[in-house]
Design brief:
The complex is a heterodimer. Chain A contains no helices and eleven strands. Chain A is mostly beta strands. By secondary structure, chain B is mainly beta. In chain B, 0% of the residues lie in helices and 54% in strands. In chain B, strands 2, 4, 5, 9, 10 and 11 form a six-stranded mixed β-sheet that branches. Chain B has a five-stranded antiparallel β-sheet with strand order 1-3-8-7-6, with no helix packed on it. The chains are: A mainly beta, B mainly beta. Chains A and B meet through β5, β9 and β10 of A and β4, β5 and β10 of B.
Chain lengths: 113, 113
Amino acid sequence: GAVVSQHPSWVICKSGTSVKIECRSLDFQATTMFWYRQFPKQSLMLMATSNEGSKATYEQGVEKDKFLINHASLTLSTLTVTSAHPEDSSFYICSASPLSGYTFGSGTRLTVV
Amino acid sequence: GENVEQHPSTLSVQEGDSAVIKCTYSDSASNYFPWYKQELGKGPQLIIDIRSNVGEKKDQRIAVTLNKTAKHFSLHITETQPEDSAVYFCAAASNNAGNMLTFGGGTRLMVKP
């Protein structure tokens, strides 16, 4: 079946530094990928839609300069959290949509200290 | 935009009993309704989905029903087992390829042995 690989699975960084999270579709091409953020005991909230070869579309309230998204190929999208702060600590999950539906990555636990 | 409500937020059942989780959606254009199981620290895993041209779908102990007129759909798990314990999310999308998923708030299911 369709597989989405997400790395790293967890990362701890210092306040003010940047962190990059990768999302790869392993056995299908994804012109569109989605990035979600999930706080403890809450649902998944869509942050942005990543489109191959063009600018990402951000949801209202999500700072595009803080959460940089690059979708340079049909199998890779990256999310960079710039100048991270403790309030950015969360579980970040990517998703892609093969013809059979939506497949999610395993998530990245980001802790900013 | 789409709004998905999910109930109950927590559900505790005895092993072997059935569990039912219900969701309502607001956008009559939605035509794809997946259900995901999320275990602690992991990404959501698709367990079953249904499209708007079908009223019911079953896969072993799991079934989903859809009432388009009332705009609600439900997940039914029979003969529950302790390993069914997890958080379950319903979602809706107006296209099953490329359009974003809107998630319900989640249901924490606990199956007591």
